[in-house]
Amino acid sequence: MRKSGKIGMGVIGCGSISWLCHFPSIKAIPELELVAVCDSNEEYARKAAEKWGAKKWYTDYRKMVENKDLNAVVIASANSVHCEQTIAAARAGLHVYVEKPMAVTNKEAWEMVRVCRENNVKLTVGTNQRFWLQHEWAKKLIDDGVIGEVKFGRSSLHETWHLYQDNVAYSDWRLKPKQAGSATLFDQGSHRVDLLRWLVGSEAKRVVGVAKRVATPEDVCSLDDLSWVAIEFENGAYGFVTTDKFSPVVSNITEIYATEGMLFASSEATNPFQSVPLAVYTAKDYTWENYPEILKKYRYPEEFWVTDLITRPLEKKWISITPPREWSFTRMMKHFLTCFVEDKEPLVTGEDGAKVMEILCAVFKSMETNSWVDLPLKEEVVPPHYRPYYEKKKEAK
Ligand SMILES: NC(=O)c1ccc[n+]([C@@H]2O[C@H](COP(=O)([O-])OP(=O)(O)OC[C@H]3O[C@@H](n4cnc5c(N)ncnc54)[C@H](O)[C@@H]3O)[C@@H](O)[C@H]2O)c1
């Protein structure tokens, strides 16, 4: 806590996600003060400090983390530097909110977890889609048993390179193996694997998958533009994640299939077949009196006077739910703040992020072995296009 009574925040990486989401979220939370920003591009650092009111700007994160007015940092730089920046921040005693994917290899991710635990700082990973209300409510309905036992889940996020790269991105790290490590598998797969693991509520036991380039010209990007991941969970359920970088519009769908119901969730950027953020079917014999609160209050259409009063039990049908709009990034930032002020575990822990990295890295291993891969991984798995750079980085240390 600073003398002003506010909590000092820093941001490393002053690019698109920081301008669109992190800076506005920090500004929207009265307890937080943006103390310092850092970007390897001097102009970006200076411009962000001017616009968002940070007193200090830096081009070297090692210098920034020494700033005594800081309590915590958001790391929103290229994937390949997330690990070293998290470790430097943690060693300086700062709590860390690192963007997804948290690292480029499974070993890096566990190292980040270890150093944060050792230095007694909180670590959360930016899979903010858990903070979309439709996903939060889906989780609650599942945990309350409304759809029975989850046996299968499918989560997909398909979109084009151009969505980010040609419109909002400040740099082209996404297209560069040295900075991204992997493309669609890491970029979108990190969100969907995290979501599915959370909703299914079990740890991954083994994984098989593919991440490869099928549509993008090699001179544009040599990285994977299509991925699919099959997961067998410890509780016997299965999950399937798909992503790509060539579909011209966004499709974002999560489907959960359980013994007594089903649940579909989507984003606002969606296709006509997913026209509401959350749809739930339960085969349970609910009456109006014991109907789950979320279904009672937020379903549409209400139909209260027609069927609900006369039908016992309530009619079984798909229920459409449109939650109120609340910006997931600000909700996640507020939650992060509460975690380090009240010494609570974040909803997305460093361990969650590392387990997601295990699943993503296992896909590359599975392509090598042409088979299912058991988790936890026994060795460090480095994405194939990243290997030459990783070797050099290790030599340089
Ligand atoms: N949670 C989400 O939904 C979401 C959405 C978009 C991006 N992201 C993640 O945020 C991160 C940044 O993505 P972006 O879209 O903002 O990219 P961007 O290219 O718009 O911005 C990245 C910024 O980081 C800076 N940078 C790179 N290396 C640096 C270093 N070593 N030190 C300091 N600054 C450095 C670049 O100069 C650039 O300004 C990525 O990890 C990405 O996966 C998350």
Automatic annotation (TrEMBL):
InterPro entries: Gfo/Idh/MocA-like_OxRdtase_N, Gfo/Idh/MocA_oxidrdct_glycsds, GFO_IDH_MocA-like_dom, NAD(P)-bd_dom_sf
A GO molecular-function descriptor: nucleotide binding
A Pfam cross-reference name: GFO_IDH_MocA_C3
Name of the protein this chain belongs to: Gfo/Idh/MocA family oxidoreductase
Sequence ranges assigned to domain Gfo/Idh/MocA-like oxidoreductase N-terminal in this UniProt record: 8-126
Domain GFO/IDH/MocA-like oxidoreductase: 137-263
Entry annotated with the keyword Oxidoreductase: yes
Keyword annotations of the record: Oxidoreductase
